[in-house]
Structures are given as C-alpha cells and as structure tokens.
Amino acid sequence: MITILHNPRCSKSRAGLQVLEEKGVEFEVCKYLDEAMTPDELSEILRKLGKRPLDIIRTKEDVFKEEFKDKELSDEEWILAMLEYPRLIERPIIINGEKAVIGRPAEIIETIL
Questions:
Q1: Hey, which of 21, 43, 49, 74 has its CA 20 to 30 A from 89?
Q2: Catalytic choice (10, 30, 80, 83)
Q3: Is 30 a catalytic site residue?
Q4: Is the peptide bond before 8 cis (omega within 30 degrees of 0)?
Q5: Helix or strand or coil: residue 94?
Q6: What is the pTM of this model?
Q7: 3 C-beta neighbours (distance < 10 Å), count
Q8: Confidence at residue 58, expressed as pLDDT on a 0 to 100 scale
Q9: Strand pairing of 27-30 and 2-5?
Q10: Are 104 and 90 in contact (CB under 8 A)?
Q11: CB-based contact 33:87 (threshold 8 Å)
C-alpha cells in the first residue's frame, strides 16, 4: 500500500496527492501534523528515502530559524526535533513498500509507483 505523508495546507503536498489520484493507485493519507509518528517510524522513513534527518528538514520554517538554525544536532536529536515540530519535515513524502521519495517536484512520485 502506498502512503503519502500529507499536509493539506501545502500546495506541493496537494500536488503530490493529485498525482496519486490521477494515476488511479490505491493509497492512504497520513496527516503527519495530526498523527504523531514514533522515532522508529521516522527512522524507517529516512531509511527508505536513503537520507539523513537533516536532509529532510525544512530550513525555511520559522521554527527552524528560531530554535535550530545555529545548532548542531545528532541524527537522533534531529529526529526528536522533527517529531516535536513536525512542520520541519519536508513534504510530501510518498512511501511504496521499501521505497520512498519526497514528492518535489510532484513528477518524481511516478518513479516509485
């Protein structure tokens, strides 16, 4: 089953959702701002993306600028920061089995369908 980590208020996330709908694939939506993840779940997503935590941090978010801009954190600390402030997580993230992509641009989603 394909899963999309989705923020309905984000135009890029809505574009990702639209790609999935247009392709007619079955998927489930995880509104990650409302549905808290565990550290293990986020670590697993990072593994599937092939990325480290800092690679998927939204550095232009106010909370990053206010709380984390000049800090050097370990991967584990960044994971905890993303769980505490989920707006820091890049979006949308589409997961299909053992593969995942950040759907920016939305066309990249097709590479894992």
A1: 21
A2: 10
A3: no
A4: no
A5: strand
A6: 0.94
A7: 15
A8: 96
A9: parallel
A10: yes
A11: yes
Residue 69 tokens read as: 């801009």
- Residue 74 pLDDT grade (very low, low, confident, very high; cuts 50, 70, 90): very high
| Nearest CA among 71, 110, 104 for reference residue 89 | 104
Residue among 90, 106, 109 at smallest CA distance from 45: 90
48 phi/psi in degrees, rounded to 5: -65, -30
Both structure tokens of 18: 């639209």
DSSP state of 8: T
Considering only the C-alpha atoms of the chain, give the largest distance between any 2 of them, rounded to a whole number of Å: 44
Percent of the chain past pLDDT 70, that is, above it, reads 100
Only one residue has tokens 């000049």, namely: 70
- C-alpha 47/C-alpha 31 separation (Å) is 20
Alpha-carbon gap, residue 6 to 91, rounded angstroms: 7
Give the mean pLDDT of 57-80: 96
